[in-house]
Amino acid sequence: MEGLGVLQEMAELTRRGQPFALATVVWRQGPSSSQSGSRAIITADGELHGWIGGACAEPVVIREAQRVMAEGTAKLLLLGTPEQFGAAVPDGMTVVPISCQSEGALEVYIEPMLPAPHLVIVGTSPMAHTLASLAGALGWRADLVSSRDFTAAGADERSLIVVATQGHDDEDVLEMAAAARPAYLGLVGSRRRGAGVLGYLAERGVPQEQLDRVRVPAGLDLGRTTHQEIAVAILAELVQLRASGALAAQPAPAARVQGRLAEAGQAGAAPAAQAVDPVCGMTVAAEVSGRAVRHDGIDYYFCCSGCRHAFEKDPDAYLKRETRC
Questions:
Q1: E strands along 171-312, which residues?
Q2: In a shared domain, residues 69 and 130
Q3: 261 located within any domain
Q4: pTM, full prediction
Q5: What is the pLDDT of residues 16-74, one digit of tens each?
Q6: Is 12 a residue whose pLDDT tops 80?
């Protein structure tokens, strides 16, 4: 995948609301298999689509891309050896050794592409329409659905759900919404009304840990306000919680996780293990492709045949150096 294919994949992942990172080669020093402008997409699962370099660069870029997604902050990497650049490395740039044989180097910019918040508003009142409009102005993905059309399938653990049904099927909608385990679940209504709805659901057997996560009334407490101001108060609370990091996705039930893996043809698959090449310090896959060598009962993995050969000639030299570090 390259060129327009990378852009099309970015558009598809964005449409599906999936996080990913975009890695772009902004500078290269030959010999190197990539070119300036080469791009690749790294998914949250560590899959790389596109071209960013060979076996030396890919494991490092994937590892750093996952960190970038977790931290939400872009990073500029210099892949080579510190001796190649000396004091010329700018502050804030991360230098990572990539190969023990090649004298090439890469500068790669990795930026997180995190999905816009997904807000599901259940209800058809003027307040619900105002809230959807305000969320859209922030670039959020806002779905406005009636109580009859809402199902838990329309949300997941990353979604934000506001139940604004105003007495129309409040209990049924809230029960379905709680089952989706969204990052936020709020009920528009008074505390007295909320207590009655939650008490009824508790009697119906809805797990208490789900009910404890319902915010009622939804939104910041602004006192007696208009429906437009209620919409502002709800959105303000969501922005506040998101900025503080309090809207982390809830763990999905095991059945849902297995279902997603099955859809992707990966049921039962586990993330690939990683190891550090004891010769050059690169991060490599701890699998058959890592050219494993067993020494004193321990498997060591390598980025290339050159590193493996050097290790086989004198394992203790590299293991002693690793111990000193």
A1: 184-187, 214-215, 274-276, 283-285, 293-295, 298-300
A2: no
A3: no
A4: 0.62
A5: 888 999 999 998 877 666 688 899 999 988 999 998 876 678 888 998 999 999 888 99
A6: yes
**Domain boundary pick from 92, 113, 134:** 113
Number of domains observed in the structure of the chain: 3
Specify if 303 maps to a domain: yes
Mark whether 146 and 191 lie in a shared domain: yes
pLDDT, tens only, 216-233: 999 998 887 899 999 999
Residues 101 and 189 in one domain: no
The CATH number for 240's domain is: 3.40.50.720
Paired sense of beta strands 20-29 and 39-43, if any? antiparallel
Provide the pLDDT for residue 144. Answer: 96
Which of 113, 154, 74, 125 is closest to 227 using CA atoms? Answer: 125
Residues 202 and 126 in one domain: yes
Could you write out the DSSP letters of every residue in 273-325? PEEE-TTT--EEESSGGG--EEETTEEE--SSHHHHHHHHH-HHHHHHHHHH-
- Residue 196 in any domain: the answer is yes
- Domain span at residue 57 reads 12-113
Question: Which residues, including other chains, have CB under 8 Å from residue 170's CB and lie 6 or more apart?
Answer: 163, 187, 189, 193, 197
DSSP 8-state assignment for residue 30? S
SS3 29: strand
Check: CB of residue 143 under 8 Å from CB of residue 131.
no
The confidence band for 91, taking pLDDT boundaries of 50, 70 and 90, is confident
